[in-house]
Amino acid sequence: MAQTVLFVGLGNMGSGMCANLVKAGFEVHAFDLSKDAVAAAVAKGAHAVEDLRSFDGSGLDAMVTMLPAGKHVAQVYMEDSPQSMRKGTLMIDCSTIDVETARALGQGATERGYPAVDAPVSGGTAAAEAGTLTFMVGGAPEHFEMAKPYLEAMGKKVFHAGGNGNGQAAKIANNMLLAISMIGTCEAFHLAEKLGLDAQTFYDISSNASGQSWSMTSYCPAPGPVPAAPSNRDYNPGFAVPMMLKDLGLAIEAAGTSGSTVPLGQHAKHLYEEAAKAHGDKDFSVILPMLNEGLLKAD
Ligand code: NAD
């Protein structure tokens, strides 16, 4: 018999993920505060849930959440989830939220008899639709194994990062590194051009030398060398500045609570705050034109 899933949060990411669970043969019940979002999920084969608390959850195998922030996930886990949900139902939270909340919600649910994993994603809306997301999973090994079939229906790669909260830790540490490497790549293109190298020449050299990185070869901030990069379409995202700022905020918060020292992460957050003021709707590689226009200062 098909596994039965309740999917909560049918926004930019959740809509594609929910549709991929349906495509993979799961029986999916879909809920969002937006009725339009529920109607769109129903058009792709899900069943509408009108009210979360009173929904009959006695036949559920799993609940997947894809929500904006920790407070929304806490609201669903602690207040709104179906009262009748049977013990043993697997809780999979795919939202990007703070490590502490993820750890507390995951451990709390598990203690109440609901195995729980945090499973944030790498990859944007295109990957959510195509079913090619990467999942970083925190939770007990046996709960990771339970979650795998659901995650494999929505993504291409699934990694176990350790106990509850470690999926979020992997996600924000990775994205802090991405922010720093993107800013460094932008500074290098800016300097090289000021010194008389054109972007393609610098790319050909640096991408074959020790400056090579994902920010350079997959997402080059200078227009030209990497045709699919947002720099070739006026820096339209891609991965928008506010999303990077959200992840950096989570990283700096986690650095504070864990006593970690992240000076470059902190400076990256400051630069993305400036980018959000000037170019809030653009891709996070917009740092390069901001440097070229003299919009960012060194301190
Ligand atoms: P979104 O704002 O498009 O969607 C969130 C959905 O949750 C909305 O439809 C909203 O109505 C619904 N919602 C909010 N509170 C609710 C509640 N209490 N009950 C039911 N539904 C509720 O956000 P998104 O872009 O889909 O992102 C979701 C998560 O994925 C975020 O944590 C984000 O950081 C993460 N993420 C996004 C991307 C991306 O490219 N968009 C990439 C990686 C990770």
From TrEMBL:
Residues 165-289 form the 3-hydroxyisobutyrate dehydrogenase-like NAD-binding domain. Pathway: Amino-acid degradation. Keywords: Branched-chain amino acid catabolism, NAD, Oxidoreductase. Residues 5-162 form the 6-phosphogluconate dehydrogenase NADP-binding domain. Pfam families: NAD_binding_11 (PF14833), NAD_binding_2 (PF03446). The keyword Signal does not apply. Transmembrane segments: none annotated. The keyword Oxidoreductase applies. InterPro entries: 6-PGluconate_DH-like_C_sf, 6PGD_dom2, 6PGDH_NADP-bd, HIBADH, HIBADH-like_NADP-bd, HIBADH-related, NAD(P)-bd_dom_sf. GO terms for biological process: branched-chain amino acid catabolic process. One of its GO terms (molecular function) is NAD binding. The active site is at K171. Its EC number is 1.1.1.31. PANTHER family: 3-HYDROXYISOBUTYRATE DEHYDROGENASE, MITOCHONDRIAL, 3-HYDROXYISOBUTYRATE DEHYDROGENASE-RELATED. Belongs to the HIBADH-related family. This is 3-hydroxyisobutyrate dehydrogenase. It comes from Parvularcula mediterranea. The gene is mmsB.
